[in-house]
Amino acid sequence: AAVSLRISQPDPLHTELRIVNGESLGVPRIVISVERRFSEIIDRDIGGTIMHVGEALQTVKFGLDETGALLESEAVLIADNGGGGAHHSPVGHRKFIFDRPFLIYLIERDADQPYFAAWIETAELLVPMAR
Asked: What is the pTM of this model?
């Protein structure tokens, strides 16, 4: 909710919505692969005895680098149904360097909710930049 409010009511000092010549942009390289096993529904009957869940997994992969972003999600369900502090720089002098914790917030135009959000706080999800 706080991020949505900040997007809908941006800081009045941030009037330029695009990066202009002379401003720096350092894109973090991130690789995330998370597998979640939904153990809370495994070996339990769902909807009475209509469906017994044997396995429920979801894998989410996210990558970000200077060429763009990639988001993949795959889910597997095996079941038996019985039948089997901000600093403001003037436009042109801003720097967009991700060297502190940051939020990745992907939302479709005109959507109410993001389809992906991640708070990146530690370097363990980042890929070192080539020097």
From this structure: 0.52
